[in-house]
Design brief:
Elements lengths: L2 E5 L3 E3 L4 E8 L6 E8 L6 E6 L5 E3 L7 E6 L4 E6 L8 E9 L10 E2 L3 E6 L1
Parallel strand pairs: 2-11
Antiparallel strand pairs: 1-3, 3-8, 4-5, 4-9, 5-6, 7-8, 9-10, 9-11
């Protein structure tokens, strides 16, 4: 059973930085399709970044150049480094996963409880 737990959410001012962590158990993150997804109140869920098992990474246009995915194999943890944060980045951030062969579907049967990011102007 794949289990994901996010951490690192906080309240910061506009222009600040945060690093979110997704600790994976039950599987090796690098063998999975991994994604960071966010949901703000009243808004649709947005896929922020996706990491294929091949190592290929794709970012949403809204975060390109500001957010970066990185992994730590020893800790089996995937990070989301968020720089130059904006108020519109305020949301609950979820780590999500699927089998590597299903990455193209954009559906993630595995997801963590989420971590809140709040950016004030």
């Amino acid at each position: 059973q794949v289990r994901l737990v996010e951490s690192g959410g906080d309240s910061v001012q506009s222009g600040g930085s945060l690093r979110l962590a997704c600790t994976v158990s039950g599987a090796t993150y690098s063998n999975l399709c991994m994604a960071w997804v966010r949901q703000a109140p009243g808004k649709e869920r947005e896929r922020v970044a996706t990491r294929w098992a091949s190592g290929y990474i794709r970012y949403a246009d809204s975060v390109k150049g500001r957010f970066t995915i990185a992994g730590d194999n020893a800790k089996n943890t995937l990070y989301l480094q968020m720089n130059n944060l904006k108020p519109e980045d305020t949301a609950m951030y979820y780590c999500a996963a699927d089998e590597a062969s299903r990455c193209f579907r954009g559906e993630y049967p595995y997801s963590g409880p989420g971590t809140q990011v709040t950016v004030s102007a």
